[in-house]
Write a structure and sequence with these properties.
The chain is of the alpha+beta class. It has helices spanning 2-21, 28-41, 47-75, 144-148; strands at residues 91-96, 104-108, 111-116, 126-133, 136-141. 46% of the residues lie in helices and 21% in strands. A five-stranded mixed beta barrel has the order 1-2-3-5-4.
Length: 149
């Protein structure tokens, strides 16, 4: 009886040490399950029942906490930067040549974007954002009149 209790106590301490050594919740569920199994070991029950309590309590704890952790982690993620409609009308420069049907890269307002165009735009060409398709800018060459503005 005491051997089982000591075994579960060692397991609780080991799971807590592992938890403290990591930056993410990885073994707290098992520490709770081991603590429950240790409590069950105070009553003269077989080791198989103790293992069952350990497994069930660990699974329940994990099941209760996992949805909260997933939603919390998603809330802290940086928003995905997309080609905001605010970039329409802005001018940039072609970083990687753009061919019709093949994407290239442009720099607009100091940010690099993937871009498409209906005409060939060589590297270094000034361009203007005419539309946005998700995170891809649709650009057109800047005419001499528009470049002066």
């Amino acid at each position: 009886m005491w051997f089982d209790t000591i075994l579960w106590l060692v397991a609780v301490v080991a799971f807590i040490v592992v938890e403290a050594a990591t930056t993410a919740l990885v073994s707290v569920w098992f520490a709770v399950g081991a603590a429950a199994a240790m409590l069950v070991s105070f009553f003269d029950v077989g080791f198989g029942w103790q293992m069952l309590v350990f497994a069930v309590v660990s699974a329940i704890t994990l099941g209760l906490m996992l949805p909260r952790l997933i939603s919390r982690r998603g809330a802290h993620r940086a928003p995905v930067t997309n080609g905001s409609p605010l970039t329409i009308g802005k001018q940039g420069v072609v970083l990687v040549a753009i061919e019709p049907g093949l994407p290239g890269r442009v720099r607009v307002d100091g940010l690099d974007w993937q871009a498409r165009a209906e005409v060939t735009l060589p590297q270094g060409t000034r361009c203007k954002v005419v539309a946005v398709d998700g995170a891809i800018l649709i650009v057109a060459p800047v005419t001499a009149d528009a470049a002066a503005v």
